Amino acid sequence: MTQVEKRESADIPVSLSPQESAPKRSRYLVAGVVTLVLALLPLARPLIGQPFNYVMQMGIVGLMWITMSSSWNLIGGFTGYISLGHNVFFGIGGYATGLFLLYFGWSPFLTAPVAGLIAVAFGFLFGLITLRTRGPSFIISTIALLLMTGLIFDNWDLVGGSNGLSLPLPPFAIEVLKIPFYYAMLVIAIGSVYLGYRVAHSKFGLALRAIAQDETKAEVAGIDTRRMKIAAFSISAFFVGAAGAIWGYSLSYLRPTVFFIIGVAAQMVLMVIIGGRGTVAGPAVGAILLVSLNEISVSQFGSSEINIVITGVILLIVLLFFPLGVVGTLREKGRLPSFLDWD
Amino acid sequence: MAAGNRGRRGIVTHLLQVVILGLLLGGVYALMASGLTLMFGVMRIVNLAHGVFIIAACFVAFFLFQGPGWDPFVSIAVTMPLFFLIGVGVYTALFPRIEGSARFTEMTVLLTFALALIAEGLLSYFFTGTVRSTDPSYKTDAILLGDFFIPTAQLLSSITSLVLLIGLWAFLYFTRTGYAVRATMQNRTAAQIVGVNVRRVSTISFGIGMALAGASGSLISFLFPFFPARHWQWIAILLALIVLGGLGSLKGAVVGALLLAVAAGIVSDQFGPTWSPMTFFGALFLILLIRPQGLFGHQARVG
């Protein structure tokens, strides 16, 4: 703890000292309890009563965004390479499992990992081309990737063009329909947060943070920066693809406008920046905050235009005044509760 | 028309016609892209909000046309100074705060991303997502030149773009402030050492970039139908184009614009207009594969 506090306040919240002194036991307790509560939540159906499906839906949405932001954090947070096209993997995952379901009858619950791997393969290919350069060219090419993919899916007959594909609903009773989606998303979210934790405490994670701080020096120090960047980028696509698979199935129709709009990418970026870039818990915190806020703002204002404005304003304010995000700012002040301190 | 002519001559004529149309649009692309690349060249700012400001200028031109009935070309007299001022305001409000930040360019991407979202949301909220365009009387006119037809609107707007680009060039090469801008582009620190007021130069350059966005908005307002969310496509195309030319290179932006506009015209002619944006993205990935620094860019520029 002491060592972490003394960290020089760099421009980005990057900690090069993952060697914490005796992690507090209580954080494992809190994490265990939270996981247990989330896992047992569907059993409380009789207690929750009428709003059960709403609770499940919110759970699915929340867990999905935790997955998205935690995954984005690997490249955008740890490595410091902003991707504005990460939702491409979300869509690729959704469409891949949708096609498996329609043409072969394979359930997305089983093919979601395959969707993740397909997303990784695309991420690898794309990274191979674009991560040759440093700096702005990469960001620009992620925007191009997003628009290009959107254009292709809008006009590709196999995937139904802009009309999309409608998928058969899974054969469950309507009252419990959401439960399998919830569990699938829970597994994916836990996986992505755990992945973030493991990366943060690995040599690989250290290399990524070094790249974020100074790529030239990292290279001089013997890090194969290009390989590390490509690895980070493609690994970060896995859970995003899997989440897209489950999300698309839960909507029971796939349309380009669900996946390939820049608003989805904006949310990912915003969640990580609000929560704290390059921290383990930050993305999840940001996701929970923003999902709640969206829920309130949609019920208050209804219109998505206002929602876009709010997203932009928050992003602007956080960037200018709290660039370290919730977790980073609290840590700087020495007020970070131990259950959020996983770095 | 020429395309109906099945002979070899007919094919050549048809191709030349496509090239002419592409070059005419390329002039306008060059105008939009030069503002964007100027901002990067002088300040290392990647302005993701460039597209949304172009669309905002379209709205200004549109309402000036609808209300007092001003011709879109006349509205340039309003959009240019207006967006210059907006640019100065935006620059002063946002960028001095993050100056000296180690990852400055990345911060500018995020800040202008936020700005683009806000502006897009406001435009959609106030003016809805309806597809609009101004309809000056000459919009569908064309001049016939032998076998070729040249749309008047495109011709006039590319001449206007050319005039503005020459103006930009003259400013950069024949005025004191222009020297200072170029010096800052070459080496910011050195420029500061020899007494250039870098802050002032940056503010002016950002304003000029935005003024060019304003002017192109007036032109775009009748060349392409517009709606608020359209700006993502514009910014993606423009960014792809300036990466192709080499980030921060004005020459690159102009050459890239002309080249890609012609290529996009050919793609559009062969595969349908839906696919013409693909030209820009395809070119972006191709250039990153074979010459990552762009046509006229310098080797490895760390952001």
Task: Give structural attributes.
heterodimer, A: 343 residues, 71% helix, disordered N terminus, B: 303 residues, mainly alpha
> Helix/strand/pairing class of chain B, anyone?
mainly alpha
- Tell me the major beta sheet of chain B: 2 strands, antiparallel
Rg of chain A from C-alpha positions? Answer: 20 Å
Which consecutive residue ranges of chain B, at least 5 long each, have pLDDT under 50?
1-5
Task: Give the SSE string of chain A.
Answer: HHHHHHHEHHHHEHHHHH
Mean pLDDT of chain A: 89
Helix content of chain B: over 70%
SSE sequence of chain B, one letter per element: HHHHEEHHHHHHH
Residue fraction in strands of chain B: under 5%
Count of separate DSSP helical elements of chain A: 16
- Output the number of helix runs of chain B: 11
Radius of gyration of chain B: 19 Å
Structural account:
The complex is a heterodimer of chains A (about 350) and B (about 300). Chain A has 16 helices and two strands. Chain A is mostly helical and about 350 residues long. The radius of gyration of chain A is 20 Å and the shape is globular. The model of chain A is unreliable at about 1-20 (pLDDT under 50). Chain B is mainly α. Chain B has a domain at about 25-225. Chain B contains eleven helices and two strands; from the N terminus they run ααααββααααααα. In chain B, helix 1 (about 10-45) runs antiparallel to helix 10 and helix 10 packs across helix 11. The model of chain B is unreliable at about 1-5 (pLDDT under 50). At the A-B interface, helix 7, helix 13 and helix 15 of A face helix 3, helix 4, helix 9 and helix 11 of B.
